[in-house]
Amino acid sequence: MTGGEAVIRSLEINNISTIFGIPGSHNLSIYNAISRSNKIKHILCRHEQGAVLMADGYSRASGKIAVCLTTTGPASLNTLSGVGTSYTDSIPILIISSQNPTFLLGKEKGLIHELSEQVNFFKNITTISTLVDDFKKIPEIIGNTITEMLKGRNRPGYIEIPYNILETIDELVINEPIKYIGNQKIHNSYQNAINLINSSKKPIILSGGGVISSNASYELLNLSKKIDAPVFTTVLGKGSVSDHYRLSAGSLILHPEGKKLLDDSDLLIAVGTRFTEEETESWSLKLPEKFLHIDIDKNEIGKNYTPTDYIIGDAKIVLQSINAKIIPKTNINISNDIKKMKNAIRQHCIEVAPSGITLVDSIRKGISDDSILVSDLTLAAYWCRRFIDVYKPRTNLYPWGFGTLGYSLPAAIGAKCASPNKPVIAIMGDGGFMFNSQEILTSIQENFPIIILIFNDNSYGVLKFQQESLYGNNIGVNLNNPDFVKMGESYGIYSERVNSFSTLEKSLTNVINKNKTCLIEITEPVPWPVMHPTPVNND
User: Fold this and answer.
1) What integer pLDDT is reported at residue 537 of this predicted model?
2) pLDDT score of 17
């Protein structure tokens, strides 16, 4: 077999079924092997950043590994921002890139796409990055890379293969991989943690993205029910418990009313969260005196807040063990306390910025409970990341850690590929849309219909507000845009413009059943989100 065939066969036996990529002169051996595979689907993209973000969206929506396949040099480096996005949010995607021939690496002879130390660009944004230097090592390196990606905190992996190795023809036995059984080991005894929970009167839970990564929603819900504890979620944890659940407190912990509920608690149980800057208002959020931290990454324990006790382990396994040992308790007032908190927050938003709540309500009412929302960095998404209800895991996708503008459109395509029977809605601004608008053609050509919501203020709206708040003026943020409706129509997709948030629900209801890629431009100005810090010039 060829090196390219060895790559595809190795991916097949590791249960990889989807590749997002673009062919180049150095990776054609892999593409030839893909053409002969009946187990792997290839999605042709229009830019490598789009390809890697599709792989990210696919992985978030499915919990499975997707591959991004690129050629050498500029194509490989085009994926860096997307790989950084996956790394920061703990998403397991695999990047496979070609490279110039092994015998010419480092010689700087003027080869096409020459970048001798290409692998080094990926070392800080992957859990493992490897240059393949031997045809016989292809299966082993692919298997080891996938194992390392899934060991502990999930993160991307990178494999680089010179094209002379890809084009080598030789005999090669590819053995079935050792089945990876997940993160079974628990570090630190959990008896102290159980004692903490049993002795608490008013425990409260903070659920992060690690709960979703671990598929631990059922276990988290059981913990909450057993001890009558409210569940706040981080942005990445939205959907880990359904917002239909009576003890769901949403992503509202940073609102003053949310802080009151937290202040009234005597124990915080934080599961699968890192306490990042934006989830803690730059680490100013006051936690209860007693705090239990459960996380799979030992490096996150005590980094930002010092816990009373901690358990290092997979959320699902840890919660199963805890649930078997804790003593049930009741808090007869807590359900009403959560309702009062939510009502007070909603009323505050209506008083300060009523159109923001209308925006959120219109989106939520216009889509089904199982719809997948994919957000970009835009004011409308800032409202949704805190206030919109989410009912199922893996239905709220957000580039939270890296803050990658242009994320939502390609990630939505990846999510649709992973979940073809669920509506997928991409929320973006006009600036972010133009980063990867070409990928509309991927959604059409590959038949992954998505709904595109463009909130158009003819500017980089977040930055414009920040500049004007800080300095009283703005520069470099106003955009001359095309007519987005005509642009969508030129792609051959249904496109419309709505001028108010109140009519958005009807438009969404209309397009959600079309099962075709549709574009809706919204022109009503989006107010500054209530729970997002307002920039202040202290000079």
Assistant:
1) 72
2) 97
What is 3-166's CATH number? 3.40.50.970
3-state secondary structure of 426: strand
Report residue 373: phi and psi, to 5°: -100, 125
For the domain made up of 353-522, the CATH class stated in words is alpha beta
* Domain 191-337 in this protein, CATH class: alpha beta
Residues of the chain where predicted confidence (pLDDT) is lower than 50: none
Which segments within 7-135 are labelled E, that is strand?
A: 18-21, 41-44, 66-70, 93-99, 128-131
CB 477 within 8 A of CB 457: no
Residue 157 C-alpha from the chain's centroid: 16
Residue 250: DSSP 8-state: E
Q: What pLDDT score does 209 carry?
A: 98
- The one-letter code for the residue type at 340 is K
3-state DSSP helix/strand/coil percent for the chain, to nearest 5? 40, 15, 45
Task: Tell me how crowded residue 104 is: count the other CB atoms within 10 A of its CB.
Answer: 15
| Residues in the chain, total | 539
- Please give the backbone phi and psi of residue 288, each rounded to the nearest 5 degrees, phi first: -60, 160
Q: Look up residue 502 and give its DSSP letter.
A: G
- What pLDDT score does 105 carry? 87
| Domain parsing of the chain, residue ranges | 3-166, 191-337, 353-522
In this structure, is the dihedral angle defined by the CA atoms of residues 249, 255, 260 and 264, taken in order, positive or negative? Answer: positive
**Spatial distance between the Cα atoms of 427 and 55, rounded to a whole number of angstroms:** 18
What whole-number distance in Å separates Cα of residue 385 and Cα of residue 307?
27
The pLDDT of residue 187 is 58
- The two domains 191-337 and 353-522 share their CATH topology (first three levels equal): yes
Look at the block and give the residue holding tokens 């990055």. 129
C-alpha of 9 from chain center: 28
Q: How far is CA 31 from CA 9, 157, 176, 286, in A?
A: 12, 20, 23, 54
In angstroms, the first-to-last Cα distance of the chain is 68
User: Is 486 within 8 Å of 449 (Cβ atoms)?
Assistant: no
Contact 61, 373 (CB under 8 A): no
205 contacts 229 by C-beta, under 8 angstroms: yes
Task: Supply the pLDDT for residue 533.
Answer: 81
pLDDT of residue 184: 55
Listed residue (342, 219, 331, 335) closest to 266, CA to CA: 331
Cα(145)–Cα(139) distance, rounded to whole angstroms? Answer: 10
> In this predicted structure, what is the pLDDT of residue 190?
85
- What does 368-407 look like in DSSP terms, one character per residue? -TTPEEEE-SSHHHHHHHHHS---STT-EE--TTT--TT-
pLDDT of residue 185: 56
Asked if residue 355 lies in contact with residue 524, where contact means CB atoms within 8 angstroms, the answer is yes
Q: How many distinct helices (H) and strands (E) make up the chain?
A: 21, 18
